[in-house]
Design goal:
Layout lengths: L2 H20 L8 E5 L5 H9 L4 E4 L2 H14 L4 E4 L8 H7 L2 E5 L2 H14 L4 E5 L16 H11 L4 E5 L9 H14 L3 E3 L6 H6 L4 E4 L1 H4 L12
This protein binds pyridoxal-5'-phosphate.
The site of pyridoxal-5'-phosphate has 15 residues, from β8 and α9.
């Protein structure tokens, strides 16, 4: 029943390596985050059996229901929280995640700093940039990104490692990826999480270090775009 997952993973890995080589980048320089939201723990287990160790979930609640048992059985598993994060979920996100990719506003930065102090755990953080300036989407505005990054690092002392974006669905994603790469370079940040099932090759060409691929591995989800709302 879950056999398609191993096949899909093999295909996606091959495409990632081909895109990495085509961009003149070293083999293995792009990490695959398998986005398992809405899919059951059995699907994650099938991916684990195929050697996939890094997963992404957008809702803390769903991650809390699925991942503690999986992590107990697979200590090397790494979990990224990639969806819009409410401040009242910050503490649980800090408990669960190895990487929080959706840091996007001062209130959340303060809540994460407090949660990290209380939990004694410091997951890496990525700042999400709303490169398309879309009102319905999470992410800090382009013009505010540099000030927000400075505040995250200096005021809140957060372990900010990089940037994340989700370009508008109806536009060429490449200029968005290029903008994010330029900002990361200027800020001295090494992690660039960009590219999904439909556009990860373009993201790799623009320098992505992490691609977040869901439906191309696990199959279609019931609701389209539910993930991009808060
Ligand atoms: C759902 C989701 C993905 C994966 O999307 P696919 O198109 O299924 O690959 C990537 N990033 C974020 C933030 C998501 O919410």
């Amino acid at each position: 029943m879950w056999k398609h997952i191993a096949d899909n993973l093999a295909r996606i890995r091959a495409r990632i390596e081909a895109a990495t080589a085509a961009a003149g980048r070293p083999p293995g320089s792009v990490a695959l985050v398998a986005v398992s939201k809405t899919h059951p723990a059995e699907a994650v287990q099938a991916a684990l059996a195929a050697g996939q160790m890094v997963f992404g979930e957008n809702r803390v609640q769903e991650a809390a229901a699925k991942f503690p048992a999986l992590r107990a059985a697979h200590p090397g598993l790494r979990l990224h929280i990639i969806g819009g994060l409410q401040t009242n979920k910050a503490r649980e996100a800090v408990r669960l995640a190895d990487v929080i990719e959706s840091l996007d506003r001062p209130k959340l930065a303060a809540a994460l700093a407090e949660a990290m102090a209380k939990e004694g755990r410091r997951p890496d953080c990525l700042v999400q940039v709303n490169t398309g300036e879309e009102p319905q989407k999470s992410g800090v505005a382009r013009a505010e990104a540099r000030d927000f990054l400075r505040a995250c690092r200096e005021e809140w002392g957060l372990p900010v490692r990089g940037l994340m974006c989700i370009p508008p669905v109806d536009q060429d994603p490449r200029p968005h990826f290029a903008f994010l790469a330029g900002l990361a370079a200027r800020e001295g940040l090494s992690v660039l999480s960009m590219g999904m099932s439909g556009d990860f090759e373009a993201a790799i060409a623009e320098g992505a270090t992490h691609v977040r691929v869901g439906s191309a591995i696990f199959g279609a989800r019931a609701q389209a775009n539910w993930d991009q709302r808060r």
